[in-house]
């Protein structure tokens, strides 16, 4: 059907019921779709009523609804959050009513999952996490949670997770402990001759969950490099020994998530859920290879049901219906239907609460959470940043005194950082810049690095310039 005929048919039929149009494109498939133009063609002034879904090959379907079918969602139930025989929970619904599922455990391989939930601020990341946390608690899955907004993001999780930390420093202690636990399991299973993970035999399935993971992993975070390494390690070793990882992040770029290729690859293989994005995010996600180029995702509007109108100069504007109301709308990018619009069920109420949201507390239930708290690991001062020996805080991880544990000594000045980067041997300028990019410190500009290198040469801390172009430390 040509677009013009599509418009004619639609306008003739008007929109009291849902209308569906199958489109076949020329060979090569759909290369791009301009949603606004499509709505214009169909004479629909509320873009959220028109749902465009790209099919396989050269097919696409356009459905025009009287109102967006995801406008009203029902509340999530404990039954939804119970794992089915595939290890999946039901977290919401696609626009055509098919359940939206998320895998929590893979009964076939025994593997723990790697899950990432992206979205702009207020899109519904933390509520999405709460659904996952409830499901875990109810299924006897042990959760170690870092809520890096000081505990404000998922307050109802308090007392419902084995470990619950609220600062970057404690989150690092938790990640180190998780890696140590995964390594210990790995050893133990190898000695037992096991090749995979058997849930609750003898160990439970466990998840490391980090809300606002971008705060640990963005440029300028003092823990960036180590956090990326540890998360990668959990993704690699933890997966097959029943320790999974879930990140919620407001990141426009994977570069804000540790800047590590391996982490990128790990996340691409895991489950990826994309909630409402900001305009810069989309291009970056495609650029990062998280979204296949050429697939079309219809934008998630901030406000559903808003007609595009223009106003005469001076006419009073009614802004009463201008509140965002598309929270929880998403795409499950790694499911069988990556381009179908979906939405989370309601997890708690849409309006803010003084204190805990009673509905979310009820979902968790009053029983104590399964599992033991992780003993957070902090490097001792003498051992340097990568010291592995543990000084566990007294209360077993339920929030620690900020002053309790010594911070790893961070190289501070650019001079120190350059000397540290060259400690293992000479580097070319490009490799030195890459090492500085990865050491967790502030962004180091090429100009300042060059100036500091010449100063260090002047101070005899670096060898004089030589024809190889390598920068060498004088010991
Ligand atoms: N599934 C949901 N059910 C009910 N309300 C929701 C849901 N998702 C989001 N909301 C509403 O939207 C608000 C923001 O959601 P949430 O805190 O999960 O967003 P976020 O992406 O974590 O935002 P931030 O980046 O600010 O942390 C919630 O306080 C709630 O009112
Ligand atoms: Mg949040």
Read across the widest sheet, the strand sequence of neighbours is 5-4-13-12-11-6-10-9-7-8
Return Rg in Å.
26 Å
What's the total helix number?
A: 12
What is the succession of H and E elements?
A: HEHEEEEEHEEHEHHEHEHEEHHHH
Tell me what the CATH architecture of the largest domain is: 3-Layer(aba) Sandwich
* Uncertain runs: 383-408
What would the average pLDDT be, to the nearest integer? 84
Describe the protein in words:
Helices cover 28% and strands 14% of the residues. It has 475 residues and is an alpha/beta fold. The protein has a 10-stranded mixed beta sheet with strand order 5-4-13-12-11-6-10-9-7-8, sandwiched between helices. It has a 3-stranded antiparallel beta sheet with strand order 1-3-2, covered by helices on one side. Helix 4 (168-192) packs parallel to helix 6. The radius of gyration is 26 Å and the shape is globular. Mean pLDDT is 84; it is low at 383-408. Adenosine-5'-triphosphate is lined by residues 119, 121-127, 153, 250, 327-328, 344, 346-348, 350. Adenosine-5'-triphosphate binds at residues 119, 121-127, 153, 250, 327-328, 344, 346-348, 350.
């Amino acid at each position: 059907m040509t677009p013009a005929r599509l418009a004619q048919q639609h306008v003739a039929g008007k929109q009291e019921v849902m209308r569906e149009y199958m489109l076949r494109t020329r060979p090569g498939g759909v290369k791009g779709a301009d949603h606004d133009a499509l709505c214009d063609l169909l004479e629909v002034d509320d873009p959220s009523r028109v749902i465009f879904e790209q099919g396989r090959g050269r097919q696409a379907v356009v459905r025009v609804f009287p109102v967006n079918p995801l406008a009203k969602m029902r509340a999530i139930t404990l039954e939804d959050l119970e794992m089915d025989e595939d290890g999946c929970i039901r977290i919401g619904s696609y626009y055509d009513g098919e359940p939206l599922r998320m895998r929590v455990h893979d009964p076939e391989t025994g593997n723990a999952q790697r899950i990432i939930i992206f979205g702009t601020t207020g899109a519904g990341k933390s509520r999405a996490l709460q659904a996952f946390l409830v499901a875990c608690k109810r299924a006897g899955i042990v959760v170690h949670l870092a809520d890096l907004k000081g505990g404000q993001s998922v307050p109802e999780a308090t007392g419902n997770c084995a470990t619950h930390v609220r600062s970057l420093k404690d989150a690092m202690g938790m990640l180190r402990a998780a890696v140590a636990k995964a390594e210990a399991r790995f050893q133990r299973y190898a000695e037992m001759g096991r090749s995979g993970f058997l849930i609750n035999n003898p160990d439970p399935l466990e998840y490391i969950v980090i809300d606002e993971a971008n705060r640990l992993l963005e440029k300028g975070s003092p823990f960036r490099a180590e956090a990326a390494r540890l998360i990668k390690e959990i993704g690699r070793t933890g997966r097959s020994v029943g320790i999974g990882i879930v990140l919620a992040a407001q990141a426009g770029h994977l570069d804000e998530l540790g800047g590590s290729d391996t982490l990128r690859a790990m996340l691409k293989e895991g489950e990826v859920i994309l909630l409402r994005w900001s305009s810069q995010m989309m291009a970056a996600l495609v650029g990062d290879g998280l979204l296949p180029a050429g697939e079309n995702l219809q934008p998630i509007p901030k406000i559903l049901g808003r007609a595009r109108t223009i106003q005469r100069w001076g006419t009073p504007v009614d802004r009463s219906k201008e509140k965002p109301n598309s929270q929880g709308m998403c795409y499950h990018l790694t499911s069988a239907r990556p381009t179908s619009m979906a939405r989370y069920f309601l997890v708690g109420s849409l309006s803010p609460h003084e204190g805990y949201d009673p509905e979310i507390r009820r979902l968790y239930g009053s029983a104590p959470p399964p599992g033991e708290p992780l003993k957070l690991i902090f490097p001792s001062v003498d051992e340097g940043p990568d010291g592995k020996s543990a000084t566990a805080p007294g209360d077993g991880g339920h929030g620690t005194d900020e002053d309790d544990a010594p911070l790893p000594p961070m190289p501070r000045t650019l001079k120190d950082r350059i000397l540290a980067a060259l400690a293992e041997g000479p580097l070319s300028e490009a490799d030195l810049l890459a090492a500085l990019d990865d050491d967790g410190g502030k962004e180091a500009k090429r100009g300042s690095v060059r100036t500091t290198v010449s100063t260090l040469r002047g101070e005899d801390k670096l060898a004089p310039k030589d024809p190889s172009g390598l920068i060498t430390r004088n010991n």
